[in-house]
Amino acid sequence: MDNAVERAIECIKERYSEPLSLTQIAESALLSRFYFARLFREATGITPGRFLAAIRIDQAKRLLLSTSMSITDISSAVGYNSLGSFTNYFTTSVGVSPGQFRRLSRTGGFGLPSPPRDPRTGFGAIAGPVSLPEGHGNARVYVGAFSTGIIQHPPAAAVIADVSSDRPSCYFLPEVPEGTWCVHAVELADGAGPDPLAERTSLVGRHNSVTVTADTVTSAAVRLRRGQPADPPILLALPNLETPPSLAATAPGQSPS
């Protein structure tokens, strides 16, 4: 079954610019449409349609960073017939418009987003340990509470935690609205080539179905792991996660240089 999902994801990544239907994606996995949809969601946390939409926006981000193509041409290249629809969905998912994303990527100007606040909603908090894979150096980790299995705008709350290589660190998400959330953690390192996103390595982790009630702190541990093909792309424009000199990455047993 893992192979079936992998075939479907390969199909999506190869044909994202086409008007792919659920039936076509299921056929690539050699499964019936309804069984495939359930299996895909179990493996990835989202529906095939949402995975396809996320791949399109992720590819648009790559083109904005690595080419001088116009936004209109990028919209068409990733499968949108309407520039307005593309711009709206990109902005909703990433947190900034395509033009702003291109400009801010050059200056490193992304910051922690400020989630909207509804005074009629009760608020609690989420806290817990976040840890790195064995052998990984120190890292700066983005932790946020999201409504879905995709890291996209807007998070309900978010923080950046400096995590040591040899022990878990604690994160604290304040003012999380009442409800059920998915806590995502991500650490990113861009490549040095002409297309940084193409060479990006990442660690990801999540804790599903975290229920928050007013005036309480809910515990949710998150352990990061290497990214896998079934992980949905990270759409949100993240702040700089470069490890500061004071936390220079060192493997366990090594001394900082």
Task: Walk me through what this model shows.
The chain is α+β, with helices and mostly antiparallel strands. The chain has two domains: 2-107, Homeodomain-like (Arc Repressor Mutant, subunit A, Orthogonal Bundle), CATH 1.10.10.60; 123-243, Sandwich (Immunoglobulin-like), CATH 2.60.40. The protein has helices at residues 2-15, 22-28, 33-44, 48-66, 71-77, 83-94, 98-107; strands at residues 123-131, 139-146, 157-163, 169-177, 179-189, 201-212, 217-219, 222-223, 225-226. The strands form two sheets. Strands 3-2-5-6-9 form a five-stranded antiparallel sheet, with no helix packed on it. Strands 1, 4, 7 and 8 form a four-stranded mixed sheet that branches. The model is unreliable at 248-257 (pLDDT under 50).
Write the layout of secondary structure elements.
Blueprint: H1 2-15, H2 22-28, H3 33-44, H4 48-66, H5 71-77, H6 83-94, H7 98-107, E1 123-131, E2 139-146, E3 157-163, E4 169-177, E5 179-189, E6 201-212, E7 217-219, E8 222-223, E9 225-226
